[in-house]
Amino acid sequence: CCKKWIQHLEMNGFTVIDHVEANMSVVKQELGVVPRLSSCHTAVFNGKFIEGHVPAEQIIALSKRSDLIGIAVPGMPAGSPGMEVSGKQAGYQVIGLTKAGIDQVIAQYPVN
Questions:
Q1: Which residues of the chain register pLDDT less than 70?
Q2: Element spanning 9, H or E
C-alpha cells in the first residue's frame, strides 16, 4: 500500500525519496505525530509530517497552513490513495495537527 501511495504522489507531480527507517516510533515522535493519528507510513513535506494515506491535494493545501505541524489519515481506510480496493471507499477524514496540539478536520472523503 505504501508503494501505491508513492505512485499516487508521483502521478500528482511530487518527487518522492523512499527511505526505510528501522525505528519509526522515534521518527514519528520527533516529527510530532501523536499516536491517535498514527498510520502505516510517515513522510515529510516542507518540514511538516504527512502521516498515512493522505491525498496529494491535501498535501499541496498544507503549504498554505502555517498553523499546522502536519496532517494525517489515521489507520488505513479503504479507498484512500494507495488503499484502493475494488471500487470500495470507506469514509475518512484528513486531520491537521496544530502547533497547540489540537486536531482539526481539514478534509472529509465520504463513503462511496
A1: none
A2: helix 2-11
Query: Per this entry, what is the length of the chain?
Result: 112
- 3-state DSSP assignment of residue 94: strand
Q: What is the pLDDT of residues 64-73, one digit of tens each?
A: 999 999 999 9
Q: From CA 62, how far away is CA 79, in angstroms rounded? A: 21
What does DSSP assign to residue 37? G
- CA of 62: how far to CAs of 18, 56, 72, in Å? 20, 10, 11
pLDDT at 90: 87
Dump pLDDT digits (tens) for 1-12.
888 999 999 999
**20 C-beta neighbours (distance < 10 Å), count:** 7
State the sign of the Cα–Cα–Cα–Cα dihedral 88, 91, 94, 100. Answer: negative
- Dihedral angle over CA of 4, 110, 94, 8, nearest 10: 20
Which is nearest to 70 in space by CA: 45, 36, 91, 93?
A: 45
Residue in this structure with the C-alpha cell 488505513, named with its chain if needed: 76
